[in-house]
Design goal:
The protein is α/β, with parallel strands linked by helices. The chain is 41% helix and 12% strand. The protein contains 11 helices and 10 strands. The protein has a 5-stranded mixed beta sheet with strand order 8-7-6-9-10, sandwiched between helices. Strand 6 (102-107) and strand 7 (111-117) form a beta hairpin. The longest helix is centred in the last third of the chain and has 25 residues, at 253-277. The protein is globular, with a radius of gyration of 21 Å. The structure holds zinc ion. Residues 134, 144, 146, 148, 151, 153-154 line the site of zinc ion.
Length: 341
């Protein structure tokens, strides 16, 4: 966890300490290490290892992370976007083993992706290729944080699902009230107490049915913690994507509608991916991807109805296999990837 102060001056020494601990636990010396792979939020230039102001890492403005680490360790250092590394991890050690062309998509607080074509991570001219969450789904839609209109992430991420549910609740409609009552009951039973540990999810064991969905981002007003008084006015109660998912499972119509709309939008996104990249496999990770049939069915129906026959028949859409450590596995995979091991 980055903690309260994620500035480079605080994080980098912690990384050094963690690497030291890992070496100690492995009873290994630095001379035995082929290299260090770093998975980090973008935007960044993987060729130079410079990180440019990631929105969730304040203070990381043009930080030459690769050079800083090289100076410290004097061994090969590889820096890559976290979605690309997760994709690489799944490609080399997870669901994508044996494939050459895969697309990895993580459906979480946000929506991200990594595209691997012919065994190579697609980087693009400035290293930003594969921003799957920011493909346009609704060109007359609302503005996303990235500046574009109607992005997939704005419509179908965990944050979007929570936002839509909270809008329904605030509307004062009978349907919204029903969802609010469900959320209140859950809160009274302590079932929706915010699970902070689940936040950075990239996907737990796919066999685990229990969902640990991302919470809305802090600016969305996540108040669904144990200290929220249940009797307070309704404006105080904010539901998260996990609550919406549980409500949908319990048959609350507005929750079902929100999830099914999100699923359709993701389905449209998959059609775009299939048409653009003709992948052998699309690997879905992240908490939202584990909502089960209520998400998968509308999503796959759209793919079936809309995708062109030849690339549709060539693609397998599968769940991620590596679980919550996919980023770590992917960071390690960078060494194999760059050295063609
Ligand atoms: Zn966007």
């Amino acid at each position: 966890m980055t903690g309260e102060d994620p500035s480079p001056g605080r994080i980098i020494p912690r990384l050094y300490a963690a690497i030291g601990e890992a070496l100690e636990q492995a009873n290994a010396s630095l001379e035995q290490i082929a290299g260090i792979g770093i998975a980090t939020p973008g935007p960044l230039d993987s060729r130079t290892g410079v990180i440019f102001s990631p929105p969730n890492l304040p203070g990381w403005d043009h930080v030459p992370l690769r050079d800083i680490f090289t100076e410290h360790y004097h061994i090969p250092i590889y820096v890559e976007n976290d979605a690309n590394t997760a994709g690489l991890g799944e490609y080399m050690f997870g669901a994508g083993r044996g494939c050459r062309d895969i697309v990895y998509m993580t459906l979480s607080t946000g929506i991200g992706g990594g595209v691997i074509t012919n065994g190579q991570i697609m980087e693009g001219a400035s290293g930003t290729a594969g921003e799957l969450g920011h493909m346009t789904i609704d060109w007359h839609g609302e503005r996303c944080k990235c500046g574009n209109i109607g992005c997939l992430e704005y419509i179908a991420s965990g944050t979007a699902i929570a936002r839509k549910a909270n809008v329904a609740i605030r509307s004062g409609s009978a349907e919204g009230l029903e969802l609010l009552n469900f959320a209140r009951t859950m809160l009274q039973h302590g079932s929706t107490v915010a699970d902070r540990a689940a936040l950075p999810t990239q996907g737990d064991d796919p066999a685990t049915i229990e969902m640990r969905l991302p919470l809305p981002e802090p600016d969305e007003g996540d108040d669904l913690t144990s200290e929220t008084p249940v009797q307070e006015p309704d404006e105080e109660l904010q539901v998260n994507a996990r609550t919406v998912s549980l409500a949908a499972e319990a048959g609350i119509p507005v929750a079902r509608a929100i999830i099914s709309k999100a699923a359709e939008a993701i389905g449209v996104g998959l059609v775009n991916i299939i048409h653009n990249f003709n992948p052998e496999m699309i690997i879905l990770g992240g908490g939202v991807s584990r909502m089960g049939p209520m998400l998968m069915e509308p999503m796959l129906r759209i793919v079936h109805e809309r995708a062109m026959k030849v690339p549709r028949e060539a693609v397998h859409i599968v769940p991620a296999q590596l679980g919550i450590n996919v980023g770590l596995v992917g960071a390690g995979a960078l060494i194999y990837y760059h050295n063609k091991m």
